[in-house]
Design goal:
mainly beta; four-stranded antiparallel sheet; Immunoglobulin-like; 130 residues
C-alpha cells in the first residue's frame, strides 16, 4: 500500500488509500475507496484543525468540491509533536480518480489561520491496472 506524504507550514499529512470491496458494486460502476489520514504537528506551537477543502476527480464525471468544518465531525487540537488519525471514504462512478485539497488550521499561540496542503492521492480499481 502506497503512503502519500506532504509537509507544509510545519504540518505533515500522510494518506493511505484502499478500495473498500465490501461496499463497492463493481458491476454497477460504484467504487468506494477508504482513505486513512494522519496529521502530525511538527510546529513548536499548538494548532487546531478548523476546516477541510476537497477536490474530487472522477474520470467519468464532473469534479466535486467538498468544504466543511473539521474532519469526521471533529476539530482536533494538536500540541507540538502530537498526531491525529482518521479514516473516511469517497465514492467514484469510474475505476480511476483522485483527491487533493487542503486543511485550514488555527495557530493557537497567535490566532492566525493557515492552510496545509493535502497530498494528491489516486483511487484506482486494481482490475484496471493490468
Amino acid at each position: 500500500m502506497t503512503i502519500h506524504n506532504k509537509i507544509s507550514s510545519g504540518i505533515k499529512i500522510s494518506v493511505q488509500v484502499s478500495l473498500n470491496e465490501d461496499i463497492s458494486i463493481i458491476e454497477q460502476s460504484r467504487f468506494f475507496f477508504n482513505y486513512q489520514i494522519t496529521i502530525e504537528n511538527n510546529n513548536p506551537f499548538a494548532v487546531q484543525l478548523l476546516r477541510r477543502h476537497w477536490e474530487i476527480f472522477d474520470s467519468l464525471h464532473m469534479p466535486r468540491i467538498v468544504d466543511g468544518e473539521g474532519v469526521i465531525g471533529l476539530t482536533p487540537l494538536l500540541e507540538p509533536s502530537q498526531s491525529f488519525s482518521y479514516t473516511s471514504g469517497c465514492d467514484l462512478h469510474s475505476e480511476i480518480g483522485f483527491m487533493e485539497g487542503y486543511y485550514t488550521f488555527l495557530n493557537l499561540v497567535n490566532g492566525d489561520t493557515f492552510e496545509v496542503e493535502i497530498p494528491r492521492f489516486d483511487m484506482c480499481f486494481y482490475g484496471k491496472l493490468n
